[in-house]
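Quick start: what a row looks like.
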Amino acid sequence: MTLTMNTITYEKQGFIGILTINRPKAMNAFNNEVVTEVYVCLESLVKTDIRCLIVTGAGDKAFVAGADIREMQHLNPSEAAAFSRAGNAVMALLEDFPVPIIAAINGYAMGGGCELALSCDIRIASENAVFAFPEVGLGIIPGFGGAQRLARIIGIGNAKELIYTTNRITAQDALRVGLVNAVHPQEQLIDKCMEMAEKIAANAPTAVRVAKDVINKSMGMELHQSYGLEVLPFSACFLTNDRRMAMDAFVEKRPKDAFSGT
């Protein structure tokens, strides 16, 4: 399956989907059209058979270099609120998407681009990646949930420093503070992301989806309160053919069959 829209492209390789923000002349910056098309694409993929999704930006200079300031500079407060709500809806859809999402961060991930990366499950950066939240230097704040997600991922102190100062950090600095999971040379980035996506896709699809859901739901809960979240999903996995096949193969000391997703 392939999909080409004005500002994004989508292709499928086996059980792996690749969604690309495709505005290279504008450094893949978010505008209303990008936000709308990403949302429409993601909604169309929710019930497909993909087992992992990679999100990236076209070219080698930018993942997403923030929101399109030329478009934003003329917004009134009502229009700005609508843009923020639309962006938040996209980020929530990414975060709650049923299968894991890997951000392949190739170059600048500024403002809204960093917010996009934070909404993904796993972030893999190229060596030329640069991260920043420049919003307060433009008289605004992050509007797509970035402040909240950043604090949860790298800690409140590091998040406040990045947002208050607008400092840019390198891929290696991002790795050091836990903003990204790994850093690779630019030319290896997509291959490394595909390698991880294929490893994820090779596991039991129902179990992976359930694991993502439990992890997401547990965030913000007290640890002792979160334990019960896994009881019903854990037991429901015992109804699947994949669980039965994998456990039988383990006990019988034979190779597993490919997981069917049933």
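That is the whole record. The longest strand covers residues 8-13. The chain is about 45% helix and 15% strand.
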